[in-house]
Amino acid sequence: MKIVESDFQAWMGGVQARMETVLARVLPAPHVAPARLHQAMRYATLEGGKRVRPLLVFAAGDLAGAPAERLELAAAAVELIHAYSLVHDDLPCMDDDVLRRGKPTVHVEFDEATALLVGDALQSLAFQVLSEKTLSAHPEAQLEMVRALALAAGSRGMAGGQQIDLESTGKNLSLPELELMHIHKTGALIRAAVILGSSCGDPLSEAEKSKLDRYAKSIGLAFQVVDDLLDAEASTATLGKTAGKDSKQGKATYVAALGLAGAREHAEALRAGAQEALEPFGERARRLAQLADFIVLRKF
Predict the structure, then answer these.
(1) pTM above 0.90, yes or no
(2) Burial of 55 from C-beta contacts in 10 A (0-12 / 13-18 / 19+)
């Protein structure tokens, strides 16, 4: 299934526009005290990004027949966690970057202390959004959504992956070591997006959940492989962030481990695995399948 299907771009644009509105609504207004913090939170979150994780929430929700009013809040929670992670990743004590989504990073535009608080506040807001309205017919399912997002963001997920990344700088990692790092750093939040989206709809069987998790794991790793390829090949203007930074900083990447051709082949293999996992769902998984193609074939 290819992303050239006539309605995919319209669907994607619709979700992206909807999420801009939803995020603007759930974020504190810029004039509310402390105004500088709230302005920085909005700066970090709005007007930028592909919104891949919200798109995955909506696509998984489409498979489970979930109402859009639930999905937009689950997607906002995931995107707020993602935005917080970017703010903290860009700090001088982490990746020390000055450009994100085509504009100065938060610590450059505001200051380092404010950027630290922005990340903290976005993370707590994510759980407020996820918990304050009914997102599932079953309270225990919504509690599991909170747990899934917390695990994805914590030491056994994104934060743990970032620690492994910091410890791996200047080292040559094997493919299994790279995948361990990125199952945590990048893949955990992508898997959470799929879990949250499907949890907003009709209950799935354990076999169906397993298939969806296989899809999410494959596409989470594929996303990082393509990121590494783009860092090596695309321009700063195209990416909206500093190109070539990983190589300059001695980061462990799929390109360093496999070479450009090998990394491309690995991304294609992961895409094939993701598509295979969706086969039992048929047309219900159309959006997830299209997103797998988009993630691997993207140029930015």
Answers:
(1) yes
(2) buried
- The radius of gyration computed from the CA coordinates of the chain, to the nearest angstrom, equals 18
The CA–CA distances, whole Å, from 191 to 48, 58, 121, 157, 246 equal: 22, 13, 23, 10, 24
d(CA 171, CA 157): 21
* pLDDT tens-digit readout, 59-118: 999 999 999 999 999 999 999 999 999 999 999 999 999 999 889 999 999 999 999 999
pLDDT in tens, 240-274: 777 677 777 778 899 999 999 999 999 999 999 99
User: CA distances (Å), 131 to each of 23, 26, 92, 226, in order?
Assistant: 16, 13, 33, 33
Single-letter amino acid, residue 120: D
Q: Where in the chain are the domains?
A: 8-294
**What are the C-alpha distances in Å from 156 to residues 104, 135, 150, 226?**
30, 25, 9, 23
Residue 101 near residue 49, CB atoms below 8 Å: yes
Question: Which CATH number applies to 8-294?
Answer: 1.10.600.10
